Amino acid sequence: MTSSLPSFSGIVPELKHPDVVNERIGKPHYMENRALLILKKYGYPIKNGDGGKCETKEGHPVPCGPVIIQCFHKNSLKYLSTKTDTELMMLIEHDPSLLTRAALDELATFIRYYTVWKETLVSGVEAVLNYNNITYNGTEIEAAGGFIPKEDFPGLVHGKGMELGIYTIYDSREPSHRGCEIQCEKPENKTEELFYYFRLGVDAIFVENIKEALELELQYDYDQRLIPASDSSSPWHSKSLWVFLASIIGVGVCSHYK
Hints:
Elements lengths: L7 E8 L2 H8 L4 H12 L26 E4 L2 H7 L6 E6 L8 H7 L5 E5 L7 H7 L6 H6 L9 H7 L3 E7 L20 H11 L3 E4 L2 H16 L15 E5 L5 E7 L1
Parallel strand pairs: 1-2, 2-3, 3-4, 4-5, 5-6, 6-7
Antiparallel strand pairs: 1-8, 7-8
Helix pairs in contact: 8-9
């Protein structure tokens, strides 16, 4: 697929519950090591100097597509960062300790993508945590620099050398849950939902309907290119965007657009 399409396409495998798997197998970091072995088996380079050896089903050599390993477990990603140069993505689901300024400092040392539930950037961290009945120690959060304000995520994440991602933009035929931590958006508007994240400067988006999302990205990009490049209020000029096709089996397909 990567060799036949005009854009970069690759895979975004997710390590699901590696702590549980490793405990049941009885080997530390079994799942993380196994994932790297499988990638290597199919020709993907593990370290920068390895060189790709990907092939078609017929055995013809083709360029390897990009790989980004995603996981909700910080310690697994930290371990992987010592074993591979493959880009790593921290998925964050309502974990107060990972939504602070101090967390960004730590994560920036071993991940490339800092990816949160999409409504974190709409309703804010505290509203999302309260909505999901997540408790936290306010003193500890304050000592960690406090929660990141929703409007500050792009600047702070980019300032640490990381990319900002969100999950998941649902198909427009499904409820979007936009703003529901405070008040659900009615009527729902998929165009405005995606345009909001484009305006913020999000770098990577998990979507269920990739055709719909890309059409809206192209529409937004076209509208922004009509604005003179000298207009500083238009941050979208020449911006690259990763679009990930969400998958319940934990292996997404990624495409890179500019």
